[in-house]
């Protein structure tokens, strides 16, 4: 410098030298957000070497995925001529994380057009603008805490935000009762403390007097140990102290987690030799910052704890409304089910409503080994949907015990659902909006008979199940989808039809029942969603692959490791990628590959046939290997039920029908009838010595006749002399045609015996429509105790209507 005011020659630095020597990252991008320049400090800050990012997107700077949308907003705003400022999370090539504070301005051409973007960046909290960086980190902490209501996720997010940016070690301890437990132990560079030194996650923690964490909790304020060499403090254990010295702990801050005056725990941060820092010590500014962070963390922890309690209560409530975790063992069927609430919570942010829903399923044992199966979905989410689901399940189980066809059960259930509409008093009084509409429910009800392999079902607006036969997967065909339960409100016209459908399943067939949460709104990687048909195709492919893994045809036996019902249920649940937006229920059933033992025979309803029915039962029980004592008991109950059926069958006459038949015409005009009309049917009641004794059709429905003497019937009347001199030929005497009366059919009953893996079922069918009931017999009554014995000695018994009468049944175990 020669004169005052003249700049020295060395002050004329080229721009490249200035950019490479300044302690701030400078990134220049073109209009398409591709990097065209980065100075030396940018390489150091973002952790890349050389010019490998030149020509690549700004996202190649390691911007975290959750900040991609923020980077897009930066480019959009600056290219319009604006200025943008914010904080990014960047992942370096060595795996470490750095938070950067970025300031972006437009790069203008002399003509005034914006040619690109210039970004100035520095590491947050390590600059001369610490107050602004503090706000940036607090903003980042707030975003992370607001993203979840789950406790573990909340604590993990806090630790990830602070390490390694603000600390080398992060510990969060929370109270459970009166004990303090370690909930988070996170360290820089993936380092982990040796076992037996610092407390691990889940272990209890006890801080001695004088420890910073103990001071913070007792003082209810943040405590700073700026230099641990100058200010020594007590450690929980000697190994803990030794590890701290070995790691070179230089500075510690502890802050209490307080919310509404309640102490939830303590949060501690420490610096050590794990990371290279210009100044490895905290100061008062850092203590205030951690105190502010701890207050926000405490609030988030409290919300997460409250939500966890509410969620656990709701899930426990719903689990107790659904069947247990293990399906029952049923003859001729293998069953697996799975229920999953919606998850994860951070994808929704709607609290408990995303967890509990109205999906439901059930397996209901019916008469004689038959099984009722149901799967359904109540509209909506939350506790109300779960409560409605519980009421529906209880109502359906009660209706199913009537053993009526599935369509009748759904009609009855629909009527019951529509009664759930009720007027409610509002503060404004009664008005048209007070009528709370009934819930909408979709469901399908099946009844399966494992011995005949007949599947009866009716549908109420639910998705058809998948049917797997010989490795081929297709939808079970529904002739009618039916309307949802509760669809027709009271007072509206029309009728919702539920059609009865029947199919026969092949041995080893598999049905996959599911609710719509399995196929609805699953997100793709590109941000779009799978359509229902795309999801259904993925499920079909997954269950087909799982089914080909093997087929276990045992009667209700243990499911195979591959190809079993459990494997198919898991494959169906995992078929569509992405978080589920609704709860999911899956039920998989597989029919037996072998025929089940059954014996059946029809008898005439006569008292003498009771012994024949008992003999058939005894022979069948012996062939099935039933214990003698149990077989004798079963035969006794067979006798009682068959006797009851025979007595009521013979005591109930069938309806008589008399149809006039043409007879040879008498003299016209006789009796006042029109000329040429056939005369009325006449019966000759004077039979002489060859008579019919009594009423041909007595109350028992049997036909008894005395021996006829004489020839065949002739001339439209009985002639006593015509019965003499020859045997009676039934072919010569058409009693029904000539007398104008039809002989009643002989009453019959059918005995059916079924054997299962652990029990036998006995069914007796007859044409009487009246269902039996237990009588209270007096001490001197000779009868009235048969059904009482059945009720006391059988495992279960009952009666159900059939299309031609009724069936009385009971169940007994094979062994006493």
UniProtKB/TrEMBL annotation:
The record's annotation in CDD domains points to: HATPase_RsbW-like, PAS
InterPro entries named among the record's database cross-references: Bact_Sigma-Reg, GAF, GAF-like_dom_sf, HATPase_C_sf, PAS, PAS-like_dom_sf, PAS_4, PPM-type-like_dom_sf
**Keywords, in A-Z order:** Hydrolase
Q: Name one Pfam family in it.
A: PAS_4
Which protein is depicted?
SpoIIE family protein phosphatase
The superkingdom listed in its UniProt entry is Bacteria
Q: What residues does the PAS domain cover?
A: 18-82
Q: Provide the residue span(s) of the region labelled Disordered.
A: 652-711
Does GTP-binding appear among the keywords?
no
What sections of the sequence does the record tag as coiled-coil? none
Transmembrane ranges?
none
